[in-house]
Write the structure tokens for this entry.
Amino acid sequence: MDLKPTKPLSGFIELLPAQQRLFDECASRMLGVLKTSGFNMLDLPAIERAEVLTDKDNWDEIETQMFLFQKGDTKMGLRYDGTVGLARYVAGHLNDLTFPFRASQFSKRYRGERAQRGRYREFYQMDMDIMGINSLSTNYDAEIISVISRALNSVSEFVGPHYVNVGSRPFWDALFQYLDLTDAQKKDVFVLIDKREKMGDEEFAAGLTDTLGDANKENQIKSVFTNGYEFFVNKSVNLDSAISELKNFMQTLSDFGVADARIDLGTTRGLAYYTGLVFEFKLAKHPELGTAAGGGRYADLAGKFSKTKIIGVGAAIGFSRMFVALMENNQLDLSRFLSPVDAAVLVMGNENVAYAFNVVNALRDENIATVVYLDTDKKFKNQIEYADKISARFSLIIGEDESKNKMIAVKNMQSGAQSQMSLADTIKHIKNI
Amino acid sequence: MDLKPTKPLSGFIELLPAQQRLFDECASRMLGVLKTSGFNMLDLPAIERAEVLTDKDNWDEIETQMFLFQKGDTKMGLRYDGTVGLARYVAGHLNDLTFPFRASQFSKRYRGERAQRGRYREFYQMDMDIMGINSLSTNYDAEIISVISRALNSVSEFVGPHYVNVGSRPFWDALFQYLDLTDAQKKDVFVLIDKREKMGDEEFAAGLTDTLGDANKENQIKSVFTNGYEFFVNKSVNLDSAISELKNFMQTLSDFGVADARIDLGTTRGLAYYTGLVFEFKLAKHPELGTAAGGGRYADLAGKFSKTKIIGVGAAIGFSRMFVALMENNQLDLSRFLSPVDAAVLVMGNENVAYAFNVVNALRDENIATVVYLDTDKKFKNQIEYADKISARFSLIIGEDESKNKMIAVKNMQSGAQSQMSLADTIKHIKNI
């Protein structure tokens, strides 16, 4: 019989134990920040009705982008982000939730497209949203940025420092209005702006000319990327309002203790559903990773599910993207994550198992991560090799003598030093070092 | 426009925030036990190649049981358990892992069948496996049972006490051989034994007669359920070997400190891939939940993926099944899980936001779960109502006076007592109570 393949499907992530421990440690720290910030953790289904996932009817095309399937008469598929499920959930539980409602999700998302390097088909994102009914202060936008900043700080030993770029959708809306662009031009220019970094200045300029054919308008748009909003002060009420919102917001961010925030009007978050301020976090030492986290304000989260207007600010941290890419590039030091345990209990002879179990239970009761090697007929050499391979800090050797005298031969695996100790002293010894 | 449905698909679980907090608390405690026991957490893809998920070619029938779909030429689907992915992973990483290898998974699994009450289409199981190459002492089977027992003890305030039934596949193999059953009879009788509890004694007896048509053999099989193995001592070498393995194992379990374990030869774990000792955990106060956790020993985990023989013992805790059912039956007290926070900071007037942010950051730095109400134009009444609704333990009110004097008006939401404090005293006050 042919053996089945052992590799996961392409685009699916599978970590080794030490990598997984680092991944879990980072998740745990960042989730700790979210909990301390009063976010409610939600764990929503990974499968949604197709009509929830999309408004479009071109199933064949959508099927190439998503994982879709049918059960009975129901078309359904795997979520591609956290927002669509959140909108459904919040709309369905308006009376069960207290607003402003803080929600966080840390879950797997799925993209059906063919896998490319750095693009996964199954990946984790960590979302956070603060939602109000009918209104919500932009102070919350500053708080979300503060929380993401704290979350990234909690893992800065792995990812290094970060900065955040803040943009404004209303600024562009007001500018397009001021420049009297047609709806079609607005849309095309917005797409150009979104792709600007990828295409480079020349191609961007050419795109503007194609779309607008008006050197004056083109130059004014281009000036945003060199001079920011300066040129547009006192040009229109809407421009002034957008500019002053942005300036005030930077002050609020600073009040909230967010360092390394800067205005970058080129930050637009593409064609997503944002309507207000938008932001993107970058890792200063890892420009190759692009955006580590991004988000912004939306004016109507759940309009497709409810007549109640849910206004909010949300963001997603590209968790797998960030950590898995760093691991794939060998940019994370795994040495601290090599071992699952502090102590490996080695048992010489099955008649000593009962005493060894006492020791193991006592260590585990003290929250000392402990494995026990229970193939008691194996030679000492094999057993100590095992303890060495799993990078146990200590081997606790139990043979006839130890069992009889209720002692433990404790070997420090780093120094090689070994001495007999009581169980109580062993626990102290392991905890003190 | 019609609004889209807000309910999740049938068979999919969606918890409210307080329920989710209880769920997460139980997961965290149980995972803590697994980590203390040196298990390596694995997070494998939820999607596997169809050929990995099944050996069968009757796709139409399998499609009703699983979520299957096709991308390009590749048939794939969502995992229905943790074992199939584990087998693939271990076989693919034989040289990266140290054996005996301890693996644990806490992940969502999927069943495509139509949903019934208590049967979910998406659910969490918590798996643990210890695997050796070519051999593995049954001491590890005892350890796995000990670890599950500790995990269930860590949540006993929610699920109550448990006990564990231990059965033996080799016993039945030896008995069938001793009774000289044909292969077809062996299979049919084994199915009957597995369904015995559901069908009741009469139907079971009738089934045996249908299959065997031999009153003597039928009675001997029935005697197992009344007298255990007693009648079969000294009947055959294989029976004696199975019986003595089971008796020794009960002693090992007791050495490992496992209370409430008992032999129950009716425990067989159905048609699963187990080949040795098997076990099932039940909750003493919740017989309606059936088996809370179950597992056993397998002789060849990854034979379809590798020529290396991986022998092991594994178990799964029916995590969603247990906790979601208890919540659905209102058998879990959510009162301790109602609030996401300790402190709600209420800000009267936007000019006080900067000082409020200082307070919020300081509290979060001290790991005090804190939300801040940032719609600063809302009246005190609205803000305190919010703090009340989210069951905050303390409201920290910041107005003009507090901001000017760098003080905080701290209100105990339970007693109603309120007093002005410095930030340092506020932190002490919240931490001490």
Notes: The CA atoms of residues 344 and 395 of chain B lie 5 Å apart. The mean pLDDT of chain B is 95. Chain B touches chain A through 100 residues (CB under 8 Å). Chain B has two domains: 17-328, 339-432.
